[in-house]
Model the fold of this input.
Amino acid sequence: MSFLVVEGLTVRLRGTPHLLLRDVSLSVAPGRVQGLVGESGAGKSMIGKAILVTLPRAAEIVAGSIRLDGQELVGMRDRDRRRLIGATAALIPQDPLSALNPARRVGGQITDRLVDILGWTRVRADARARELMEEVRIPDGPRVLTAYPHELSGGMRQRILIAAAFAAGPQLIVADEPTTALDVTVQKEILRLIREMQARHGTALLFVTHDLGVVSKICDRLHVLYAGRVVEETDVPTFFRGPAHPYSAALLAAMPRHDDPGAALNPVPADVIAAVAAEVAAEVAGG
Amino acid sequence: MALLRAVLTRLATTGVTLLGVAVIVFVVIRVVPGNPIAMMLPPGATDADMDRLRALYGLDRSIVEQFGIWLGGVARGDFGTSITTRADVLGLVLGRLPATLELALLALVLAVALGGTLAVLGTRWRGGRVEAGIDLGNGLALSVPDFLWGLVLILLFGVLWPVFHISGRVSPRLDLPFSTQFYLIESVLRLRLDLTADLLAHMAMPAVALALPLAAIIAQVLKQALKETMALDYVTLARVKGYSETRVILREALPNALLPTLTLVGVQFTFLIGGTVIVERLFSYEGLGNLAIDAVVNRDLPLIQGIVLVFAAIFTGVNLAVDLSYALLNPRLRHG
Amino acid sequence: MADGRGMVAPRAGARLWLSGLWLGLVGGAALSAPWIAPHDPLAQDLMLGRLPPGWMAGAEPGFWLGTDSLGRDVLSRLIWGARVAVTVALVAGMLTALIGSVLGLLAGYLRGWVDLVISRLIDIWMAFPPVLFAILLIAVLGTGLTSIIVAIVVIDWTRFARVVRAETLNQSAMDYVQSARVAGFGRGRTLVAEILPNVLPTIVALVTLEMGIAVIVEAILSFVNLSISTDDPTWGGMIAEGRVSVHQAWWVLVVPLVALFLTVLAFAQLGQGLRDRYDPVLR
Done:
């Protein structure tokens, strides 16, 4: 039974007929990692935002359903929706620097949700925070908890954010390109950490990324998005053996090869783009 | 070490500024037509009398000498003697200063409360009619100076609905049990709340007149800073965690939006203090500003010098305090 | 976008029209005072003292806005008072803008010791309480229209100098200035032809603000009896008189107050509207 079920989600730019997401369906079961892949602007971040109800004011949901643990989010009252998401879901954001409040110590930014939203006691929350420091492998945990964000490196900050996300065993985590803003050397570490924590807590993980290499390391299944539409949905081993959709194939071929550094890069060919664009246009015209 | 050097440089700059103010005042008022000495003497005074009095006040020396003498006096704490009242200038100034300080601080509190509330409300209900209304009212309040607000308040609450007093600092009475001139503070400390109420009833209108322009600026700048802060990722994260919109504004955005607002507000506060000159006159409030106007009209040179210098010291002091608190409150600068 | 902002946007254009309308009215009144004022503003008649405005009981025909304690017609005094207000606004406003802007441009562009001196001067000037400085200067210079204008310029040039200096520093750092210099244009030419046009919108918006401030300063000075030396009516003087008799003849205070209020508002809105329309960045 999937924890998150999205069906026919359509998001529009307010006041225009332009659709940012078109009839998107996906589901994530507990303990599984679902990937959302696509180029910049394909709409993958938008899906995460729609689920966590953090869509920008300019976007609005016009159709579809989002069910979290069986409860329908679309149309729910703001207060109830906020409560449900706060209790069961979390976000691992892309930019660890701007995702931490510069005026507050990082420890508080892990425990605040536990105390204010989930009703834990201060003591229990602080103990959990120290536990988490070990889980995410931050040395000298108690000292780091009292630090301000600007005193920590990018990798450390991302670990803090991961700790905050997994703090109270959430059932769903949306990871929005969590390694994109990090140094390459740190990326692997963080990725491994996320996989570990996810496995340990049995969380349903929706992993948004543009990097197919990352997908191969962490995801069980993946959706490929183009221009707000899902063009392919399959499990990872099948995808990498030979994707069905020409766009997906082109994406795969576009990945730079480590074993042939001198080879030319393969951008997605123009005719493939044209073909997909035509597909989308046909759907738009059809209704 | 770098911090110490920065502080010393600031103090030096402040000293230069104050010196410059003193020089300008000194030079400007020595050009004054109208002979204050002549005003002090009875008719029929001889030239010798006038010369003697002039020598007494040192007005027969060269400007540079006079300045040197005055500066030396200031270093010793002697600001000279008032020509009109024959009283010690420093004593006069310090006697009136608390009244003005209390008024200015009351105005500051009102401005922060009003401006802050409007900014938060405008952010909570942004993009709608509430914010549009606040912006409109703000634009109005911004363009109108404290002088005009004072007059409007006199009309409204002095004539139409006489709820507040529009004249003086306190209702006339014989027994004022105060040992300092800080009437308001003392009345609270001595638990004479009847006096506190009377004082506030007198201070309310001038304080509001002074506060409105500052409140408008605070509302505008803070709202803008809040809106920019609300767009940042950690605010989004707070929403996902489950915090309500209002709590997000107050907990996450406000502390970060305060810092950039602080500097501007500090400068505007000095304008507010400058405004006490005319507002006190308008409401016949017995503060330093009111005394200043009398001093100029009476050509009381030493008193003018003393008052201007004190005002300048307050201005530069406020600027210094603002810069200091900015450095202290910014965690990056503090730990950085 | 479908939100409340739509309500405020049309006001941006209305802003310019309304403020321009009022200011035109005031300017027109100032110019044509001798012809349109119904009575001699200085003519006293104690028998006609403290008459209420035309629509109230006890009013006399011909005195549309009532009379003051000395029987002088409020409307006529208002119209004649506009002369002083307009003169001060225009002359003092422009002059302050000119001197302040020039100093600001020089400081921002030449930098070095020029900037050091000017910035130091600005700091010293800003340590003075403005109203006190004004009163002091008038006491020194004596009363009169020229003194008022000189006083306003001397006190408020810093308003322009600071902003123009900051803006000039900003612009000087931009690439188009480098390009001009590389192309061989001299410093003066660069300053006038390249930088000035980009700083101009800021200056224009400030000029209208300054005019409003000039009117206020004159009113304050009239209020403390330090304005023009003759008996010619000024709005500030009317306010001072009105304040005294506010319980018996409130219109003597209200009429010039409203006029002053609207004028200051109009100047501020005009500046805002101009900036909104002509700022190249906002466009």
Q: What stands out?
A: The interface with chain A takes residues 1-2 of chain C (CB under 8 Å).
